[in-house]
Amino acid sequence: MEQTTTPPRTRPRRTPPSTTDRPARLVVLVSGSGSNLQALIDACADPAYGAQVVAVGADRDGIEGLARGERAGAETFVHRVRDYAERADWDAALTASVASYEPDLVVSAGFLKLVGSEFLTAFADRYVNTHNSLLPSFVGIHGPRDALAYGVKVAGATLFFVDHGVDTGPIIAQVAVPVLDDDDEDTLTERIKQAERRQLVDAVGAMVREGWTIDGRKVTIG
């Protein structure tokens, strides 16, 4: 009989809450209007939330997300992919800009570019993204449309740590949104957005105040 071996279990990776009196430092990446960014900015106005948006980065100029950051007093920066000869050069520049703000957590809030290996190595266990489906179902950019087409009765949103795959990282939190009989893509998308935004604010706040542990694919806050 052929013997099989169990791969060694990796040790849990613990990120403690900040032990200083300063709020946790958030860098938020955006590509559009920045509605999720605004929800984080509004939450950070309460000192008890425990975080501050110190910088907002984007992959394009002239978007409302950058304007929201500026109005909130955060620094802003832009790295357009087309300005770099190689995608790896863009990734390195983005990594350097984010790192300069010494973030405790990096949040993709509608950031439409996939980051590369250098970025993921620099911010391993600190880069989170939100997706408008209950992963691992309906990955990609059309979560609500695909959920409706499949006929599911419950859709939702997922907050997860970004890894080298597409919507494949360890799951931090999920929220369910019932699919109504008269839903179309627009109505379902809007209700998911509202639930997704509340979840993002609640989970990020809990993470920075309580810390988190990643044990394989299991994420525990606190």
Q: Give a short account of the largest sheet.
A: 7 strands, mixed
- What is the CATH level 1 assignment of the largest domain? Alpha Beta
Any idea what the radius of gyration is? 18 Å
Helix-strand pattern: EEHEHEHEHEHEEHEE
Structural class: alpha/beta
Uncertain segments: 1-9
Assigned CATH architecture of the largest domain: 3-Layer(aba) Sandwich
Overall structural domain count: 2
- Our measurement of the CA-to-CA distance between the termini, rounded to an integer number of angstroms, reads 44 Å
Q: How confident is the prediction overall: mean pLDDT?
A: 94
Would you count the extended β strands for me? 10
Tally of DSSP helical segments: 6
